[in-house]
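User: Please fill in residues for this 105-position structure.
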């Protein structure tokens, strides 16, 4: 509305990136069960080049905790900055739709 990207859209992109990282580590389907510590640090402006990075922080028996960071490169500059951070928690899902153990590696 003010030339900023809607936070809900950013949250969606972060969930997708975290889900990919969790699914690769879990070697199969996962589902988001929580979002912890979401921080919108700076606005994302129209024309910013957006990058979303996801790293596995912790692996439990059936759950995975994923750190997500969103960076932008402002249009017209080479300046990169962190704009959003969050922690997403996933559970590995079995064929029966219930939690399943995450493989040890």
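Assistant: Residues filled in for all 105 positions:
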């Amino acid at each position: 509305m003010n030339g900023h990207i809607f936070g809900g859209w950013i949250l969606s992109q972060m969930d997708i990136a975290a889900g990919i990282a969790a699914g690769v580590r879990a070697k199969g389907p996962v589902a988001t069960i929580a979002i912890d510590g979401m921080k919108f640090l700076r606005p994302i402006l129209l024309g910013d080049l957006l990058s979303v990075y996801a790293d596995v922080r912790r692996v439990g028996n059936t759950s995975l905790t994923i750190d997500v960071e969103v960076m932008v490169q402002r249009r017209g500059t080479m300046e990169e900055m962190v704009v959003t951070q969050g922690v997403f928690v996933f559970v590995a899902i079995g064929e029966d739709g219930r939690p399943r153990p995450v493989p040890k590696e």
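For context: The chain has one helix and four strands.
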